[in-house]
Design goal:
Layout lengths: L16 H4 L19 H22 L7 H21 L10 H14 L7 H23 L4 H17 L5 H10 L3 H6 L11 H9 L6
Keywords: Hydrolase, Manganese, Metal-binding, Nickel
InterPro entries: ARMT-1-like_metal-bd_sf, ARMT1-like_metal-bd, At2g17340_3_helix_bundle, Type_II_PanK
Cofactor: Ni(2+); Mn(2+)
Length: 214
Amino acid sequence: MESSGELVPFPLLMTPIESNYRACTIPYRFPSDNPKKPTPTELSWINLFMNSIPSFRKRAESDDTVPDAPMRAEKFDQRYAAILEDIKKDPESHGGPPDCILLCRLREQVLREVGFRDIFKKVKDEENAKAISLFKEVVCLNDAIEDEAKRAENLVRGIFAGNIFDLGSAKLAELFSEDGMSFLASCQNLVPRPWVIDDLDIFITKWSKKTWKK
């Protein structure tokens, strides 16, 4: 159920929000860039979303809660691909310039326009059930780690493993359909440190001081 209430700024964000807050931290473009020409970063993201269309279409086709799902999935494919091509020609079209949030929003909008409420509901329900069954074991394994810093690192790795599970990614959707995925396997397959952005030591230091306690 969607809220019909008024949207308000999150009170803990720095004000004025218009100049201090950016939902996307990736610099898609700079003031010197031509507003009528997509930047290399924008193009790479547009192509990423374009490459994800087949996996979204396949997922939509199998949605047995929607009548004529294959036909509607084809419409989604055509409409969303056309939007992405438009944005390639004119980055300011469809509410642009584009960023990850806009591209996701447009994709969801097209899915709903053609009749799909949530093409991932079935897999969400299945994976939630698996996660609940694993929860006790995962917590016990973490509690058994005596070193506080290593225990915190293990928690962070678990967060990363959960976040990796993203069927919006064409590569991960392909992996899931072929071999399946598991939380423990995702934990084991995380790349070793140092990570590209690695503030774990700073986080663990703050965590150990328990500044989050009231």
